[in-house]
Design a protein that fits this description.
alpha/beta; seven-stranded mixed sheet; 11 helices; single chain; Rossmann fold; about 250 residues
């Protein structure tokens, strides 16, 4: 089951995610007239920066979550085409010149299918530039979370449940991309710890959201507070990002 998202809260506290994403946007090699897919556009904040890179082109912003899609449509208006779609099933009428994706691929468990589908929507020579959670991502936060999950008052909510994220390594990702048909593949891990301005809302809205889906609404704040109490002061989220550059063969 896909996790739910509070698009308003994400838009409010998601500044650190946007900041990480801007460096990824800068890696795109663009003239300014291309068709670019923002794969996992969220609330459209990163898409706005992408639009600046293609003033004579077109952006197709895609997200699987309906709340995110609604927010992105409100933010972007008619400047971009916003679609609700599962990336593993994405289809386009005409191929794209490039695909950008930030903070999304770790929510897709089947990377083999994902990469094959993305290859299929790129034109020959088209580029894929992405960043997501990678091996070692938020390991300290997850350790604290598992300690809280194991407490008697919380454990019953998580019986038979596993976290719906995949934090892949650089080497295994490169192998999957090449198996899917990509060339010029480069993958690398990048530590990027952040200290959010509003730590409790940030934790609940972004890294702990899938856990909170398991809890009654009235218990969620207490869960976040118990996890935060086990983290450094000030609260730090120990991100490790998996970066991907690749191309469809010309």
């Amino acid at each position: 089951m896909a996790r739910t998202w509070d698009a308003g809260s994400y838009d409010k506290v998601g500044g650190p995610m946007t900041a990480m994403a801007l460096a990824v946007v800068d890696r795109l090699e663009l003239r300014g007239d291309e068709v670019v897919v923002d794969a996992g556009c969220g609330t459209g904040r990163v898409t706005e920066h992408l639009l600046e890179r293609v003033p004579r082109g077109r952006v197709i912003a895609v997200d699987a979550n309906p709340a995110m899609v609604d927010k992105a449509r409100a933010v972007l208006g008619d400047r971009a085409e916003v679609r609700q779609a599962d990336l593993t099933e994405l289809e386009l009428d005409d191929p794209a010149d490039a695909i950008l994706s930030t903070a999304t691929f770790h929510w897709v468990l089947d990377h083999d299918r994902l990469f094959r589908q993305l290859l299929g929507v790129l034109r020959p020579g088209g580029q894929l530039v992405a960043q997501c959670g990678g091996a070692g991502n938020i390991v300290g936060l997850l350790r604290a979370t598992e300690e809280v999950v194991g407490r008697d008052e919380w454990s019953g909510f998580f019986e038979g449940w596993s976290r719906p994220m995949r934090y892949a390594g650089a080497e295994e990702t490169a192998e999957l991309l090449e198996a899917a048909g990509f060339t010029d593949v480069r993958c690398w891990l990048q530590p990027h710890a952040i200290t959010p301005d509003e730590p409790l809302e940030y934790l609940g809205s972004i890294p702990l959201g899938a856990h909170l889906d398991r809890l009654p609404a009235e218990r969620r704040q207490a869960f976040v507070e118990e996890v935060a109490a086990l983290l450094p002061d000030p609260v730090t989220v120990d991100y490790v990002r998996l970066n991907i550059d690749a191309r469809r063969p010309a």
